[in-house]
Amino acid sequence: MLIKLVDDIDLNEAYHYLRHPGAGAVNLFIGTVRDQGQGKAVTRLSFEAYEEMALREMQKIGAGALEKWPLKKLLIVHTKGEKQVGEPVVVVGVSAPHRDVSFEACRHLIDTLKQRVPIWKKEFYTDQSSWINAHP
Description:
The chain has a single domain, classed as Aldehyde Oxidoreductase, domain 3 (Alpha-Beta Complex). The protein starts with a strand and ends with a strand. 32% of the residues lie in helices and 42% in strands. It contains 3 helices and 9 strands, in the order βαβββαβββαββ. A hairpin with a 2-residue loop joins β3 and β4. Keywords: Molybdenum cofactor biosynthesis.
């Protein structure tokens, strides 16, 4: 299991980590900065985390998924700091013997991360900024 908070996400590293000879499916969800938020044009985002607690919760989420599904590998990686429109900010992924399991587990990882992990984002608009729970 690979769990990290990073300055920049390397999508090639994520895919290569998840590869496994017993996996018929590798599933990656990549969350990116979109150009709209709160009905306004977004210019960039800034992420902050309570790192110790965030990593601990990410570990728990990953361990729970490994208990629930027959996964070969799993990763949860989230960025911190400033990100521009289009940049990846979170990647969750799994490798599994079959696609149904990989889709179900991957969806669970991102949904649970958004509910439980203490990460906040500040949205910057053309005229102001606003702090928002990154994972409401």
